[in-house]
């Protein structure tokens, strides 16, 4: 087989991963596995494992190793085990996502053509989610016949509310390159087109109507304006339009108003008694009782219902938690609380260090030369790693799978990285 053929096969598989993350997780898993196997075979053939010397890889392996150790099924008093067999196996295969990221960075996306094709795959995913969200808003149903969710959120091309989070993470990698290209052109028409495109992108997130995605979209807009001077007037105008849209939601989209404004006000007004407050309190109690090694991967799912974790923190005025109020779920709904309950404070520190290592690598040289796609991918990763907010379980493909896709392309664009042949 020609030396270039394995990389072409790996690129074809990698280009299918975004499609799989949208509508076929099994396809995504198969393609990730194919890329990993081909990458390791190529490294062995070339006897080149230099990618292991990168800072983020070392920190990632340390975090993974500690989580694996903490998830080893061992008897614990009053609990059963720090993890269980399935949880241990789930941690064992996390390495596939770190390998996939390294493969994209160091081998699959080392040519401009490959990176361009991969960007198009991500951009089309963002467009698809946006188009289906607007179709559902205007007609009441998406292309598959699904209505908006019961709480008012638009589901886009999905049957349940997944659109907001995926769209928020993909928005700036897809949006910034065309917007900045339009703003850089001479003439009022091009600048107005750039403004219109930016406004459409952000307003789509508002009308989808999920709280955290809207907040993360605002965060991304602020970061983009901070890095790119010529984007600041546009960002101010777009932000004003987004605020105006929220103010008008009682008229133009009452379900969005109920979700974004009324429900948010209720949760923040009594946060500790909200489902999120109950979850975080329960997770904090679990961490207090096992601060060094946590309870293993899936430990929260297994142990949360136990009465020993329902006491709250009376000395701090935090009442005992009630399962009926939502104190337990499949995970704590925050990556950092999950890292803490899974693997204690060492696991939390290593997980936070991994996030910093990723952002540091993605942001290398970006302040001096804020290239549109690199900045968009930095923002996309930042919106995942941002510690405040509700999240899915980490690192399942369901939503965090997008993080590794964004990281792979973002790391491949670092200008100091030498392409591999």
**How large, in whole angstroms, is the Cα Rg?**
22 Å
Shape label:
globular
How many strands appear in the DSSP assignment?
Answer: 0
Mean pLDDT: 91
Largest sheet data: none
Beginning-to-end CA distance, first to last residue: 16 Å
Low-pLDDT runs? 417-421
Q: Report the total helices.
A: 16
Report the helical percentage: 55-70%
Coarse structural class: mainly alpha
**Beta-strand content:** under 5%
SSE topology string? HHHHHHHHHHHHHHHH
Describe this structure in words.
The chain has a domain at 5-48 and 94-268 and 363-412. It contains 16 helices and no strands. The relative contact order is 0.13. The chain has 421 residues and is mostly helical. 66% of the residues lie in helices and 0% in strands. Helix 5 (95-108) packs parallel to helix 16 (401-412). The protein is globular, with a radius of gyration of 22 Å.
Which SSEs are present, and which pair or pack?
Blueprint: H1 5-23, H2 25-46, H3 55-70, H4 85-92, H5 95-108, H6 112-139, H7 163-184, H8 188-208, H9 211-227, H10 232-252, H11 254-269, H12 275-289, H13 299-303, H14 335-362, H15 372-385, H16 401-412
Provide tags for this entry.
66% helix; globular; disordered C terminus
